[in-house]
Amino acid sequence: MHQHKIKLGIFGFGVVGQGLYQTIKQTKGLQVEVIKICVKNKSKKRLADKKLLTFNKSEILNNKEINVIVELTNDTEFAFEIVKEAIKRGKAVVTANKKMVAGHQKEIFDLQQKFHVPVLYEASSCGSIPIIRNLEEYYDNDSINAVEGIFNGATNYILTKIFDDNKSYSKALKEAQEKGFAETEPNMDVGGYDSKYKLCIIITHVFGVFVKPEQIFNYGIEKISDFDIKIAKEKNCKIKLIAFTRKIGNEIFGAVFPTFVKPDNILYSLENEYNGVVVEGAFSEKQFFLGKGAGSYPTGSAVLSDISALRYGYKYEYKKYFQDLNLKFKDDFLVEVYARSEHKNSIRKNDFASISEEYKSADNHFIIGKIRFSKLTTSSWIRKPHVNVLITPENKLENLN
Amino acid sequence: MHQHKIKLGIFGFGVVGQGLYQTIKQTKGLQVEVIKICVKNKSKKRLADKKLLTFNKSEILNNKEINVIVELTNDTEFAFEIVKEAIKRGKAVVTANKKMVAGHQKEIFDLQQKFHVPVLYEASSCGSIPIIRNLEEYYDNDSINAVEGIFNGATNYILTKIFDDNKSYSKALKEAQEKGFAETEPNMDVGGYDSKYKLCIIITHVFGVFVKPEQIFNYGIEKISDFDIKIAKEKNCKIKLIAFTRKIGNEIFGAVFPTFVKPDNILYSLENEYNGVVVEGAFSEKQFFLGKGAGSYPTGSAVLSDISALRYGYKYEYKKYFQDLNLKFKDDFLVEVYARSEHKNSIRKNDFASISEEYKSADNHFIIGKIRFSKLTTSSWIRKPHVNVLITPENKLENLN
Fold first, then answer.
1. Looking at chain B from residue 314 to 333, which residues have their Cβ under 8 Å from any Cβ of chain A?
2. Yes or no, beta carbons of B302 and A284 under 8 Å apart
3. pLDDT band at residue B74 under the 50/70/90 scheme
4. Which residues of chain A are within 8 Å of residue B286 when distances are taken between CB atoms?
């Protein structure tokens, strides 16, 4: 079998980059060589050979010896510039930058087609779980009905601490940040943005439809109250931040939403910083992938797998896109939710198509009922600080036809 | 991307074959055509176009139009003949026959190398879990320390019924057979042979070492008694039939053994007919794959994925074998076990290297201690009907050096 010798130019040298560098040095038979590492901060001390370091991106982009760029910065627009320039120069790209990939999916796809250069981004989605590779390679024929999962390790860690250890939200968040699971800008995690970027990328490889992050609604875990937790426990549920996409007919739905999860759902027992992805195939029924989703090792491992795959000329085929199944992403469907407010009459009952439960006390009101998703997400009340909304355990989506 | 049109000759038309045939007919865009189906029994009614059926294997093997053979018989030696003849004629092979593949791995590998024809057998191992593909493609660089899991759906179903529903062994077995999970010859499942064949195949793709089924010791679940279950529950454990392989230095260990499993092990909550595989990588830590392991759909789904992969020229690269890591399979290591007998002095205490617990009552005696695996498996007492042996929860193997 033909192998390419990989000569790397790395952008960014944080924990992932450093772990990658160490592993490449230590692992025999990898056939990978680090040629240059581009960093921003000139004063920081680095655990790499000084000769490898540069502060000028051109020293990597214009180096003809380098055939693979590893992009590990946290600057989305700079990252996209690097990717574009690399592809135009015929250099393959490996990136872990989910925000950049999700935001520029179609452009990255087009550039790959035009210049016949692979861009791999397994590390962008669900840490060490090889979900994109599996969706690309293993499920191409098996018509998939749905993919759902816990895509963010930090929020799952926080929810675990809140639920199992009765910790407060702020204490649990601080702990997650100390452990390196949560980003310094926690809204990315707890607001559901990180999960949404991953969902965008996954939808492309599940259904062959390019969806922009702006098209997907995300709701975070910040407003979960002691009362919500009490209700969840009474209903024998946990609360998890679930990202999901589902096909009904020719329509694709998708969102990121905190959800009541019952013990018979495999995601119920997925705790701490773990990520899990459930793939529901028409033929193979449910399959479950689990792995650590946060931290430098899982990401580094995924980056290394992509680099190694390039040795054998691997590229994403985007088979489902080319199958042209005429699927459309829609942000409107019927969903059952629990909507809770600390104030009376905050939640507009008329917005609901049907109501199955209603509760009122001095401090808390809630409604459980079915509502059009477009009505829910554009409602005046969903963004109020004293209102919280969760999807009910069944998460049975219905289309509106 | 170049695609081959697949023209199939199928051997065997049981539930898996029929499901496959139906799915191919129903799924658009598969680019797969069934040319001939070879069956044994002339009198059975079949749900396929009569023109497709044949009773003569040469009508498939000598048909130049057919480029892929799907082997779904339950006759091991006939199956191997078919595979050999197909490869020699340049026809790719997809098979679900774990006993055949495990028993002839090196020969099948050699034939593939010689005739440059792919043989895919994802369906032979752990149903719908794409474990071989992942070990081949995704983990090639990441040095893996261990793989362990529940590889047999029937035994897991039986153990679930015994543990959670307090059913007797015989009743649980009957139920598993009625549901189509257990083979008609239950010893294949409950004796651990089925798991062992899968482990053989998996070891090749984890460590690049060809191991014969005879080299791997398997112990079944048939002798688990009410007392064993009571002890397991007292220790807050369940009993699961675990197949495992682990690398320590340059030595590879592997066996199939009923094992006490604690709640912190992900396999503890894996119930019913599900299979689960834990991959422990040096870098990516633990990853977990879960899917249904028994029944016709999971197998059919895996067969279809392999057929589809052939459209894109996929083949196993056996990268780890070619990396020539000089690993050796050894059947000797130190292991901690629980050995129980209904008779006094049945278990030879002197065989143990150390003993940490000992229990005696009128009806039951047990010892928990460390023992050389080779001493355990060749002991006079392990095969006695009134003696049962389980591996303790830690399953901490030690090599003997």
1. 317, 323
2. yes
3. confident
4. 291-292
The ipTM is 0.78
Predicted local distance difference test score (pLDDT) of residue B324? 79
**Contact residues on chain B for A126, CB-CB shorter than 8 A:** none
pLDDT digits (tens, 9 = 90+) for A30-50: 789 999 999 988 788 888 888
Spatial contact of B36 and B63, defined as CB atoms under 8 Å apart = yes
Rounded CA-CA distance A47/B351 in Å is 51
CB pair distance less than 8 Å for A283 and B297: yes
Is residue B396 scored above 80 in pLDDT? Answer: no
3-state helix, strand, coil in chain A (%, to 5): 35, 25, 35
Tokens representing A298 are 């899982």
Q: How far is B127 from chain A (nearest CA, A)?
A: 9
CB B22 within 8 A of CB B57: no
Label residue A401 by pLDDT band (50, 70, 90).
low
> What are the chain B neighbours of A139 within 8 Å (beta carbons)?
305
Which one of A7, A98, A196, A198 is the catalytic residue?
A198
Q: Pick left, alpha or beta for residue A180 (phi over 0 → left; psi -120 to 50 → alpha; otherwise beta).
A: left
Q: What is the pLDDT of residue A278?
A: 94
Sequence-ordered alpha helix ranges (H) in B47-185: 58-61, 76-88, 98-103, 105-115, 131-137, 153-165, 169-178
Q: Looking at residues A73-87, what average pLDDT do you find? A: 95
Distance between CA A290 and CA B302 in Å, rounded?
20
How far apart, in Å, do the first and last CA atoms of chain A sit? 52
CA A173/CA A176 separation, integer angstroms: 5
**What is the tens place of the pLDDT at every residue in A47-70?**
888 899 999 999 999 999 999 999
**β-bridge partners, B244:** B148, B255
Set of chain B residues whose Cβ sits within 8 Å of the Cβ of A294: none
pTM: 0.86
pLDDT (0 to 100) of residue B1: 45
| Tokens coding B269 | 């909550």
- A325: chain B residues, CB-CB within 8 Å: 29
Q: DSSP letters of B8-50?
A: EEEE--SHHHHHHHHHHHH-TT--EEEEEEE-S-SSS--SS-G
Residue-wise pLDDT for B218-261, tens only, equals 999 999 999 999 999 999 999 999 999 999 888 999 999 999 99
- Copy the structure tokens of residue B229: 């279950």
Phi-psi bin for A70: left (phi > 0), alpha (psi -120 to 50), beta?
beta
Phi, psi for residue A323 in degrees, rounded to 5: -70, -20
Q: Which residue of B has its CA nearest to A1?
A: B317
pLDDT (tens digit, 9 = 90+) per residue, A110-168? 999 999 999 999 999 987 888 998 898 877 655 788 999 999 999 999 999 999 889 98
- CA neighbor of A261 nearest in space, from A391, A156, A356, A165: A391
| Residues of B carrying an active site annotation | 198
The answer for residues whose C-beta is within 8 angstroms of residue A12's C-beta and 6 or more apart is A38, A39, A71, A72, A73, A74
With 0-12 / 13-18 / 19 or more C-beta atoms within 10 angstroms meaning exposed / middle / buried, residue B43 is exposed
Q: Are the CB atoms for B238 and B353 separated by under 8 Å?
A: no
Whether residue A5 lies in the annotated active site: no
Chain A residue with Cα closest to B316: A1
Give the chain B residue nearest A314 (alpha carbons).
B137
d(CA B318, nearest CA chain A) in Å: 10
By three-state DSSP, how is residue B330 classified? coil
Task: With CB atoms and an 8 Å threshold, state whether A137 touches B137.
Answer: yes
Only one residue has tokens 């059009």, namely A372
Segment of A9-18, A308-317, B56-65 carrying the highest mean pLDDT: B56-65
CA distances from B274 to A160, B114, B257, B270, B292 (A): 25, 37, 17, 6, 4
Q: Which residues neighbour A64 within 8 Å (Cβ) at sequence distance 6 or greater?
A: none
